[in-house]
Specification:
It is built from 8 helices and 7 strands. By secondary structure, it is of the alpha/beta class. Strands 3-2-1-4-5-6-7 form a 7-stranded parallel beta sheet, sandwiched between helices. The N and C termini lie far apart (about 50 Å).
Length: about 260
């Protein structure tokens, strides 16, 4: 059995997943790098993690497929003899918008739930025996969408609400052996939004977000990774938390004091 800790990060080819995998590698974790389609980016993430000193397994698989989830858990345990952390990051959406909230067919709805909720559940189920043996940690990458009922589409919003509820249930069910928490970012400056709404739309939404949130900044992938790392490596008395990384968006627009100016 390796003396280094071991983490599985689903959907870790790009964005938050890649940043999280690299942060864990830099802190001494060996890693399963998982992807479904972005093979070139996944190889780059694995290479970066290896350069940081991590042994890596690069595994293609859709978390909506239970067999793929079990394969990831089995492969990690076979290689390293342990699993210390699971980060459920894999996620999909459909950018429908508020005006077109009802323009989603059942197949799309079920696909989003299949990845975002069923996939997370299946990964937890596959990894739980190994995580229990290590007093491990699960971190679900959720969204402010699940807390505020806003987001790219109805099925995405509903899936993140379901993920939050799943987090709370699992925190109770798996205690005291496994801690289970979720991070709920607001807008993240990754290609997720750019691919969904285009570069021009992204810049417009980002500007609006920065003007309307108390802290006046969007979240980076590294911001999310930093919180995930804390939940995994520290936070020994924290479980069942839904941590909002939204620059205070849930508070509403902060009132401006007379003569106050927002920092650039």
């Amino acid at each position: 059995m390796t003396e280094r800790k071991v983490a599985i990060v689903t959907g870790s080819a790009t964005g938050v997943g890649a940043a999280t995998a690299l942060a864990l590698a830099q802190r001494g974790h060996d890693l399963v790098i998982n992807y479904s389609k972005s093979a070139e980016e996944a190889h780059a993430t694995a290479q970066a993690c290896r350069a940081a000193g991590a042994d890596t397994l690069l595994l293609q698989g859709d978390v909506a497929d239970d067999a793929a989830c079990r394969t990831m858990a089995d492969a990690a345990h076979a290689r390293w003899g342990r699993i210390d952390a699971l980060v459920n990051n894999a996620g999909v959406t459909s950018f429908a918008g508020v005006a077109n909230w009802d323009a989603i067919d059942a197949q799309t709805f079920q696909h989003i739930f299949g990845v975002n909720v069923v996939g997370a559940f299946q990964m937890v189920r596959a990894c739980t025996p190994h995580l229990k043996a290590r007093q491990g940690s699960i971190v679900n990458i959720s969204s402010i969408a699940g807390a505020l009922g806003i987001g790219s589409s109805v099925p995405y919003i509903a899936s993140k609400g379901a993920m939050n509820a799943l987090t709370l249930h699992l925190a109770r069910a798996l205690a005291p052996d496994i801690r289970v928490n979720a991070v709920c970012p607001g807008m993240i400056t990754t290609r997720w939004f750019v691919d969904g709404i285009g570069a021009e739309g992204f810049e417009k939404v980002k500007a609006q977000y920065e003007q309307s949130t108390p802290l006046g900044r969007a979240c980076t992938a590294e911001d999310v990774a930093e919180t995930v790392l804390w939940l995994i490596e520290g936070a020994r008395t924290v479980t069942g938390e839904l941590i909002l990384l939204d620059s205070g968006m849930h508070l509403g627009r902060a009132p401006s004091a007379p003569g106050a100016t927002r920092k650039a």
